Amino acid sequence: MSQTIAVARDPRVDFFRGLALVFIFIDHIPEDVLNDFTLHAVAFCDAAEVFIFLSGYSAGLYYGAAFRRTDFVHGEALLLRRIWTLYIAHIFVFMIYAATVSYTVETFHNPMYTEELQVGEFLTSTHVVIVKALLLQFQPAYLDILPLYIALLALQLVLMPLARRRPLLLLVPSVAVYLVVQVWGWPNLPAYPEDRTWYFNPFAWQVLFCLGVALGLGRLAGRRLFPHGRRLVGMAAAVVAVSAVIKLSWTLHWHFDEVPALLIGWLEPISKTNLAPLRLINFLALALVVAGVMTPKARLLETIPARAMIACGRLSLNIFCLGILLSVIGHFMLVELGSGFAMQAAVNGAGIGAMVLAACFILWFRRVERPPSPAPRGAARDSAARDSAARDSQE
User: Fold this and answer.
1) How far is CA 109 from CA 105, 136, 335, in A?
2) How far, in Å, are 10, 35, 377, 388 from residue 216 at the CA level?
3) Of 70, 146, 363, 375, which one has the fewest beta carbons inside 10 Å?
4) How confident is the model at residue 7 (pLDDT cuts 50, 70, 90)?
């Protein structure tokens, strides 16, 4: 039987997940000036890749530990419980989202929202759309990441029991399916209306999630799954630097026509739906660089802004749902009330501040609600350490 070691909680996971949640909030507001200062402005990937990869990594830690210390049925039950939690959260956010958008459309009589937010069907065929939403087929703007997360976690019901002892085996079918999508452009899941498919193709994005799961399982077992070293980090840094120069030229060209958009005719289109190889390579190179230059004890992680991001990352599902709703409200405010500097500052400051305050309050309340228990000993202490670390994203 393979050995499972106690794994210390890695603050980098929470930090970058929290940062990704803030970026998602900003990127979902089209008029937000901060859009030009998030990851997608200097990379071919964006916060979605960060969120999915770290979710897979944390799932590998948590559910890998669960399958190792319990029986198959209990491990599957834990996965099903998490999937159900995600599903309930998605439906809850959808209902508030639909009510907010409907109220705004009726109040301001602005037809732009109907097409921009893809809610026309909800306003005209509400009874059908609610059923399609329950089936995860109706995914208006901003509400497409949680269905992807649900689908990817459901895939682990089959893969996790098979891969928990040999994580690399998880990647063989995963990469094969990803290559099929890249070569033939299919399959994808159907969406509603009938001429649409899922914005995030789960058959493509599963490769990033499965890679995260495999790395989490490998860390749980106390071994590295891939080669590492300064040379590899140096090569990854070169990829990140070249990608940053090219993508930054595109970002600047969007605002200043005289700035040339380097290689745009050669590289575009870069499919986000099917996780184009350029996006995947850029993200993996970025992940290698970050893992190589930032340690879990880096001083950056002890600063107040970093602690705020860590708090958000520890409650990723709660803060993600809140951020989605805040981004919709922020979008409406900038359109209806003006997009000047003062309003931009108010929307960004209030939105990010609300996310941080909500995370800090929930964590504080949990500490108050749960009095400290006696310190466990021996094997129980090791098991508690594994559980605490592995629970990075299972909030």
Assistant:
1) 5, 28, 12
2) 12, 31, 25, 14
3) 375
4) low
Q: What is the per-residue pLDDT across 124-178, written as a single tens digit (0 to 9) for each? A: 788 899 999 999 999 998 999 999 999 999 999 998 887 877 888 889 999 999 9
**CB distance 20 to 46 below 8 Å:** no
Torsion of CA 302, 47, 59, 304, to 10 degrees: 10
Residue pair 137/191 in contact (Cβ under 8 Å)? The answer is yes
Nearest 5°: the CA angle 355, 394, 282 is 75
Q: Which is nearest to 22 in space by CA: 306, 395, 337?
A: 306
For the stretch 71-100, pLDDT in tens is 788 889 999 999 999 999 999 999 999 888
DSSP, collapsed to helix, strand or coil, labels residue 274 as coil
Q: What is the DSSP letter of 3?
A: -
Name every residue whose Cβ is closer than 8 Å to that of residue 41 and which is 6 or more positions away in sequence.
Answer: 35, 247, 248, 251
Determine the Cα–Cα distance for residues 79 and 391; give it in Å rounded to an integer: 13
Tell me how far apart the alpha carbons of residues 168 and 175 are, in angstroms, rounded to a whole number: 11
Looking at this protein, which amino acid is placed at residue 207? V
Cα(146)–Cα(128) distance, integer angstroms:
21
Q: What is the CA radius of gyration of the chain?
A: 21
Q: Which residue has the tokens 């993508």?
A: 247
SS3 assignment, position 190 = strand
Contact 75, 217 (CB under 8 A): no
Residues 6+ apart with CB under 8 A from 376: 383, 384
Q: Is 378 left (phi over 0), alpha (psi -120 to 50) or beta?
A: left
Residue with tokens 């029986």: 71
Which residue type is seen at 178?
Y
- Average of per-residue pLDDT values in the chain: 89
CA 130/CA 162 separation, integer angstroms: 36
